[in-house]
């Protein structure tokens, strides 16, 4: 699978040795509470299993580990039915997620005819919704989803970004 580089980040395929850092970052409740489908508490064996079966980017699905060179794994981006992401709490508020997601969106639209990407966030997850808005995602619906960490249904805002909107922003680097 491809590695993507940005000014500050390396987006790369998952490796089995990522499991400890992955589990540590995503298992913190401040992170996990926003990841609706994530089992919580999240264990090292769950991380190992997830990373072992992670999509490798040969189809419409992909998973990239977000790494700060010299500092290691700080988060993850995935693309399946929706764009999903998380950043470990010590790295919040530094623009890493917007930078990483921009690179992944470029990669996704440059390599195929896909016309849109969907994303979502819990309605009260303002930082995630701000990142989505910065990237050009617009609200296209709302629904309720069961949160594993919170153990109840939570309202979700569903967003989408179209290829034409991304192109209009001048964001796509290669066609």
Automatic annotation (TrEMBL):
GO molecular function, one term: acyltransferase activity, transferring groups other than amino-acyl groups
Domain N-acetyltransferase intervals: 9-155
SUPFAM superfamilies: Acyl-CoA N-acyltransferases (Nat)
Protein's name according to its UniProt entry: N-acetyltransferase domain-containing protein
Organism: Devosia chinhatensis
């Amino acid at each position: 699978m491809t590695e993507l580089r940005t000014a500050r980040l390396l987006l790369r395929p998952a490796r089995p040795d990522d499991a400890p850092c992955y589990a540590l970052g995503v298992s913190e409740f401040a992170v996990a509470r926003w990841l609706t489908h994530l089992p919580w508490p999240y264990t090292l064996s769950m991380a190992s299993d997830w990373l072992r079966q992670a999509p490798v980017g040969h189809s419409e699905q992909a998973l990239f580990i977000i790494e700060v060179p010299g500092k290691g794994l700080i988060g993850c981006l995935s693309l399946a039915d929706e764009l999903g992401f998380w950043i470990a709490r010590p790295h919040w508020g530094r623009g890493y997620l917007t930078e990483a997601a921009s690179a992944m969106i470029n990669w996704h639209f440059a390599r195929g005819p896909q016309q849109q990407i969907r994303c979502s966030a819990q309605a009260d997850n303002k930082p995630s919704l701000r990142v989505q808005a910065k990237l050009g995602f617009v609200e296209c619906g709302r629904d309720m989803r069961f949160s594993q960490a919170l153990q109840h249904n939570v309202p979700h805002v569903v967003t989408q970004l179209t290829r034409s909107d991304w192109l209009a922003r001048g964001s796509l680097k290669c066609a």
